[in-house]
Amino acid sequence: MVPKYYALASNLLASLSLGALLGLGVYVTKNTLVIGGSPTPGFRVIHIDQNSWNVGCTIVGTAVGILAILGYSQHDNFLTRQGIMSDQGVVALYLRPLTVSRSVAQVIRGQLITTRILLALLTIVSTLSSAATVAIFGVHNIDIKLTNPVPSFPLASYNDTFFETSTDGYYPTVPLDEINLPELEAFLYRAAYIGAATTNDPGGFNQFSTAWISPSGAIGDTSYSSLNTGGIGLNMTSYFDFSGYPSRFHMPSAYTFNDLSGVVYGTHVNVVCVNSTANYDLDYSRLDDDIAVFKISNHRNVNFQIVQDTKSPNDQLLIGAAVSGTSTTDPILTIAVPVELGETFICDCTYSGREYMASIIVSSRLSPLEVVAEVNQGPFIGLDVKWLLARTATNFLRKPGGGSLISAWTSTSWNNGGDNNTDTAALLSTILSQTGEAQLSLLRQTAERSNTDTQSYKPHSSSVTMSVRITMIGSGQYGWLSLYALLLVGALLGLIRTLSRFEPASPDVQDPVKVLGLMLNNDTINDKTRLKIDEKIEVLCSSHL
Questions:
Q1: Distance of CA 6 to the CA centre of its chain
Q2: Whole-model pTM?
Q3: What is the DSSP letter of 412?
Q4: Where do the structural domains in the chain lie, given as residue ranges?
Q5: What are the distances in angstroms from CA 458 to CA 26, 45, 63, 302, 348?
Q6: H-helix segments, 216-256
Q7: Residues in the chain with pLDDT values less than 50
C-alpha cells in the first residue's frame, strides 16, 4: 500500500520548487540582467559562464519536471485507490500509473473527467519544464529598442553649456569651443580634391581611377554617404559603444549595435561665389628676384596682400582670402588667386542656409548615416553662424601655401598655372558649401552624443530609436511563466486534496504486481516472482524480497 504521505511529500516538494522558480522567474522577467559590463540605470549586471549556466538551467528544469510528474502520479494514485473502494468504481484505464503515454491514451479515448484530464494534461505539459526553465532563466541574445527623446538640438542652443556624463561624473562642455579643426581641414582637402578631379574629368574620375577618393566616409565620429553632410551631426560613435550614462533614457553598458533611426536637426549651407575681379584693385610688386607681393583692395575696405615665392619648386598655385563686413551685416568672403603672368582671379562668396529636421537611418555599425526625408523646415541661419563659417574658411585659406585647398588642387593639377578660372567660382561654391555643412556637423557631434545633455533645453520633436542586441538572463517574456503557474496549480491541488481526505484502505491498485496477486489470490507474488503465460498466467517460482 502506498502511504498517504508519499502523495503529500511529492506534491509539497513540487509546489515548493515550482513556487520558488515562479517567483524567481517574475523577478528575472521584470529586471533586465545583462551578462558582462557594468551596472547602469535600468540594467542589472551578472557575471557568469554562459555555457555552464545554460546546462544548469536544463538540469534544474528537468528535475522540477520530474518532481511535478511524480506529484501528479501520486495524486492520480490517491484518486484511483479511493475510487476503487467506491460504489461506482474506476475505469480500468486508471489502473495504469499516470504517465505521458497513459495521459495521451486518456485524451484519445475520451476519458475526460475533470480532475483526471487535468492531471493528464499537466503530465504532458510537464515535459516542457526544461524548455521553460531555459527560456526563463537561460542566457539569451535579445534585441531591444532604446529611445533617446532628445538626441539633437537646434543651433540656437549651442551657446549653452552641455554636460557629458561618465562613470566619474558630469563634465561641462560648450560645443562652440570644441570644433575639431584638424578633422575639418582634412575634410576640406577631400572636398577640394574630389571637386577638382570631377571638374577636370567628369567621366573619368570614378572608383576605377588610380586617383579615386571616395566621397563617402567618416567625418569626425559619424560616417556619411557623400560629401554633403546636410549639417547633421548625430555622434554615432557614442551610440555604437557605451560612452556614459544618458540622462534622458537608459542604456546598458554592454551591447551590440543593430541599427538606428529617428528625426534629428540639420542645417543646409549654401555658399555662392561670383567672379568679382573687376571690382578690385590689384597692385603687384617684387621684394627681390624671388618674392612677389600682390596687394588687393576695394571700396569696402577689403585690403590684404599675398606674398609668393616664385622660385621653383615653391612657385605653386597661390591663394589668399579675407572676410569683410560688420557685426550687423552678412560677411563677404573674398578669395583671390593671383597670377604673376596672367589674369588674377578674385571672387566674392556669400553665405546663406536654413535649419531643418530630417528623418535618418543608420542600418548597421558599418553603414553611413543616410537621410530618408526632410520632415520640417526651420529658421534661416543667423549672422553669428555665417560669420563663424566665413572666419573658419578664411583661416584655412590663409595658411602657408594655401593650406588644404591648394594642396588638393595641386594634387589634381587643377588650374595649373592659374590661367584658367572658368569654373573656379562654381567649384569654390561647392567646396565651401560642403565644408560649411561639415563644420556644423562636427559642431553638433560635440553635443549630440548619447550621454550629453543640456538642462536648458526641453524635449521636442527630435528623437532617435536604437536597436541593440544584449546578452541577458531570460527572454523578458511572461508567456513561459504561465506554464510554471499551471504546474504549480496542479501540485497545490494534489497537496490540498490529499490533506483534506482520509487515506483509502485499498491496496495500490496501480501496482500491476499487487493487482496480479489479488487476481490470482496468491499473496506470495512479488516483484521477483517469475511468471509465464500458457493459456493463462502461471507462477513458476516465488522469492522473498
A1: 53
A2: 0.81
A3: T
A4: 4-138+474-505, 147-471, 511-545
A5: 36, 31, 54, 43, 40
A6: 237-240
A7: 1, 341, 545
